[in-house]
Model the fold of this input.
Amino acid sequence: MPERQQILQLWLSTAALDTNVVAWAFYDGADGEGPSVPTESPPYSSGVAALKDGWFLLQAPQPVAPRRDHGQHQSTGLTYGFVFERRV
Amino acid sequence: MTDSQLLSTKQVADFVANGCLRFEGLVPDDINEAGLEEMRQLSSQRFSPEGISPPDTGTPLSECYPPPSAIGAFLRLPSITGIIESLVGPEPTFDHDWTHHIGGGDLAGQHLHVDAIIDTTDPSFDIQLFWFPHDVAPGEGGTRYVPGSHLNRVHAGVTAAYQHIVGDQQAHGPAGTVYVFHHGLWHAGQPNPTDRSRWMHKTRLNPSVPQVRLWDTSDLADFQNTPSDHIFANTQPGKVGDTLRTWQPWLGVLEQRHEVVQRTKLWRYLTGDTTYDVDHYLTRLDRPLLGTDVVDHA
Done:
């Protein structure tokens, strides 16, 4: 069986990888044959904790430029989403 | 609606902070039982030429579901009319409703979403009533929702990615429990792991009057904080500002301030007080360049 990809998305409380997880999602290309992640509580305390457990960072959030007018204070979803992968 | 049991200032402030209110076992058993049967009928007959049909969009609420109707009896309960009147006025218009039925063992859940997608960006809002006519224990498929997400304006597809959010909740409670959502609240139908059907009736209502001081404001003067209420200076414990600062674990410390700005704008609209503030944020933004009348919010 070739390697298959598992994707873990972590949304952190800031753009720093060592801050806490506020949301997460897991997509399993191995269809349950590899390790999973919990659903009732965050799988890791931070992005760094995911790195230490063997996840590789694929994508980090881009800086968001402040907008003029009150729009800079209008939130639009979770800002600091990171994408990790591991192959199983 | 003279018998309406209006909300208090604290309840409306909680709605502004969290985007929802919960009323446990609010609806009497006889209306729940009749409502369950009417929901079954509406669910099966909604699109058929015969049988029960929903009201037309835009119908004044008082003309919706005339007697005999269990859904109408629900909408005319003094406790329900009080909630409605407090948030969207005494004669809102019917937007739409929907009976949500998830069969026992149906493990397909919805992605997290906001309902209408096309909504105004001004502070006015619709409400959605979620009526659960039978017991729903925690984990039995009650609607998932994210407290405090209602003023975080997203493209509808964005929230679908958030499989799990720290601090999200699932609706639950004894028969007759009612949740009231701001139209922007992120939510999702959940899997039903039980062997019993889960029923819920949702009604969306549009305001037809300015949503200004519609609730029981007899306690507003005592509860309202002054604009000097500032968490980094002197705070006014127990006042509205305390409630509007309600923190949700998914926000983090820094992002929460953006939500406080939005909640403060909404409270200004609801109270008609354009000088109201929490933590000095809007006062700073509204201050013109000294010596001019130019306001630069950048």
